[in-house]
Amino acid sequence: MESTIVKSVNYNAYFGENHVVKDVNIEIPRNNVIAVMGPSGCGKTTFLRGINRMHELIPGATAKGKILLNGEDVMEMHPIFVRLKIGMVFQRPNPFPNLSIYDNVIAGYKLNGIKLPKAEKDKIVEHSLSRVALWKEVKDSLTKKGSFLSGGQQQRLCIARAVAMEPEVLLFDEPTSALDPISTSTVEELFHELKKNYTLIIVTHNMQQAARVSDRTAFFYMGELVEYDVTKQMFTNPKDTRTQNYITGRFS
Amino acid sequence: MEGKIKYRIGKSSSFQLLTIILACSCVMPLVAILVYIIRAGITKINWSFLTNVEKPVGELGGGVIHALVGSMLVIFFASIIAIPIGILCGIFLSENKKSKLAYWCRLSVDILQGVPSIVIGIVAYIWMVKPLGLGYSAFSGSAALAIMMLPIIIRSTEETLKMLPDSLREAAYALGMPFHRVVLKVIVPCGVSGILSGVMLSVARIAGETAPLLFTAFGYQYLNTNMTKPMETLPHLIFKYAITPYKDWQDLAWGASCILLIFVLLLNILTKFITRKWKVQL
């Protein structure tokens, strides 16, 4: 029953003259965890940010090609709709410092001016925080500010904020690189839970993490998608020598 | 060797002492002004001083109520003009750091900050007082002061918002928020303490401005609340009375100086308080 949810067709991204993502064609199946790995500056983050059109927010950034979400080209849609359907979690936890934990979870509704009855908001908050295994830890301090939490908790709060919007796809840009090992493993465990309901695309420069959490892995090098395969296959029997060199640590 | 180290320690501590002395000498003029004006002015302030308008020379019991009310009104209307324009311009500058328009805008703001206040007064006279044919008016004074407030509000808003991390904007955009909501619901609330302190400092800055009012609000010896008519203001009243040879009027000027000084002082303290209290911990 694996159906494609995100598909890119000849996707190219540029920063001014700089061609950072080159002709990427990739098909991402529903309810999978996809790891995107590669050395620094290989275009993996740019590609990820292209999927929900965050790339174009940077002055001078442009993109060509197609990104299909359920067969519909996101480049033709309004970015606001795209971002409501494709949530994103960033490298550094970035809860809204002026909002309480509760308001942070429903920030997508509250700040977009969508009015919800109190009971429904409570339900969304509890549901989203439970999804990210944070409900038990914060249920007595929902009115405190988001920045009061630890780094790992803040990151899970940010995931809850994305989950609350009930997106179809969740993008993670090196979600654990600013976290300590224990928080990292908590977040990694979450991925297994979250993929039941969402499709996750995770950029990481940590190969072990890619191997641990993903179903499929994409390897980017110098802006190209070098190899894309089932994770187990990729790590035991890579087809491209560049992938092989990267995995065996000959460059990083 | 030991002597050398002792020499270096001695040099280090004398340098430290020098910085302390110089720092104190910066505070000295302020303290001196404060003490002098309060000592000279506080005794002049009493009930009739605060409730009466000015009286002819020789008649006791003159007051400054007309200037007090006038200053409040002129500052109030100047704020109404300058605050929205200033904050919006600051937002534009911080959200469009690299655009050409932002470059020119920033340059003009910097230049505007350096324009002598008397020139702004003359410009307001030429643009508003003369062509409208109403003669001197309090409203033209407000406009002149608003021009003086703008650079302070714009730059402090811009600097405050520029300090906010981009991750905050990204978080908001990633939730599908449109630009106006990102700015109004996330960026401005997070920078509110800095924006407010800029606004209050700009008010403190213009409260004592005399030159722009000479050609605009002009001055008036009775209580007036009509913004289209000439109006007395505290700094102008001080100027007017201080240059007279009459002791009674000079006393009024001292009292008015004292009030103005206390007002500016309180505003600055309040600003510090607000900045600390409303600061959003990032």
SSE inventory with pairings:
The complex is a heterodimer of chains A (252) and B (282).
Chain A: E1 4-15, E2 18-29, E3 33-37, H1 44-51, E4 61-69, E5 72-73, H2 79-85, E6 86-89, H3 101-105, H4 107-110, H5 118-131, H6 135-138, H7 151-163, E7 169-173, H8 181-194, E8 199-203, H9 207-213, E9 216-221, E10 224-230, H10 231-236, H11 241-247
Parallel strand pairs in A: 3-8, 3-9, 6-7, 7-8
Antiparallel strand pairs in A: 1-2, 1-4, 4-5, 9-10
Helix pairs in contact in A: 5-7, 7-8
Chain B: H1 2-41, H2 47-51, H3 65-95, H4 100-114, H5 117-132, H6 138-163, H7 166-174, H8 179-190, H9 192-207, H10 211-214, H11 234-242, H12 247-277
Helix pairs in contact in B: 1-12, 3-6, 3-9, 3-11, 4-6, 5-6, 6-9, 7-8, 9-12, 11-12
Instruction: Note the main sheet of chain B.
Output: none
C-alpha-based Rg of chain B, rounded = 24 Å
SSE order of chain A, one letter for each helix or strand: EEEHEEHEHHHHHEHEHEEHH
Greatest interface (CB-CB under 8 A), with counts per chain: A-B, 30 and 22 residues
Quote the beta fraction of chain B: under 5%
Instruction: Give the uncertain stretches of chain B in residue-range form.
Output: none
Distance between the termini of chain A: 36 Å
Beta-strand portion of chain A reads 25-35%
**What is the architecture of the domain at 4-92 and 167-247 in chain A at the second tier of CATH?**
3-Layer(aba) Sandwich
CATH 2nd-level architecture of the largest domain in chain B: Orthogonal Bundle
The CATH class designation of the largest domain in chain B is Mainly Alpha
What is the CATH T-level topology of the largest domain in chain B?
MetI-like fold
CATH topology of the domain at 4-92 and 167-247 in chain A: Rossmann fold
Which word captures the global form of chain B? globular
Supply the helix-strand structural class of chain B.
mainly alpha
Helix content of chain A: 25-40%
Number of helices of chain A: 11
Helix content of chain B: over 70%
State the major sheet of chain A: 6 strands, mixed
Q: What is the total domain count of chain B?
A: 2
Distance N terminus to C terminus of chain B? 49 Å
